[in-house]
Here is the input.
Amino acid sequence: MKALRIATFNINGIRSRLPALLAWLERERPDIACLQELKAADRQFPRQEIEAAGYGCLYLGQPAWNGVAILTRDSEPLEVRRGLPGMQDDDQSRYLEAAAHGVLVGCLYLPNGNPQPGPKFDYKLRWFECLLKHAQALYGSGHPTILAGDFNVVPTDMDIYNPRSWVKDALLQPASRACFEQLLAQGWVDAIRHLYPDERIYTFWDYFRNHWARNAGLRIDHLLLNRDLAPYLKQAGVDAWVRNEAKASDHAPVWIELSERRRRH
DNA sequence: ATGCCAGGCACAGCCTGA
Here is the structure.
């Protein structure tokens, strides 16, 4: 394993946010970047600009909504899968899987699920069940694997500034949290929480109510490592400076750094 | 209980996000 930096970023519109994306790539130089909420059809994806920045890319878009991409520095990602197994008739672009830099990467944009209860929440749980099934296979695959993306789940009350005002939100529902806990029960390591067990760390601050200035955030973007990759985890963090820029996405990038050698067992 | 801000599209008010 070579030292790697892997990031996930819900960009909230890759076309309107392209200058911010390029500035972030240039400053942070992630080896692998998973993007969500492209809000662009494939023919609108800014491939040339991203390649000019030194990144190969795979993308699964659709007009106006959703959309995921995997960017790899100085290389071409090898596509493994587009779409989640069991969701073949899903018309929403939410999952892309690729191999790059010796790692298998699943880039996901889990459904929001609001309002709940209702069909959108049912769809979220159905999608999550398919993810759990696929994640189980990936976990024991023998390949160093990461699941990265916007999971649209606040895992615990420590992952939100104030759960009371969100108690009815799909992101905090016991059923949503139970699915996330099932991922952890499979053995996946939540990189941020593993390295910072007691800290309040957020990845999303909505545009309402001055939440960014008040640091009233949620942690919903996650990087999960399987048993073959977790021993290499060295560092993790949030590029909060991105959220402070003009016309920023409501999410900030989250990243991990892997070391060349195993660090733990 | 609802709107708040923002992107995208049908380019004018909706729909969606979380």
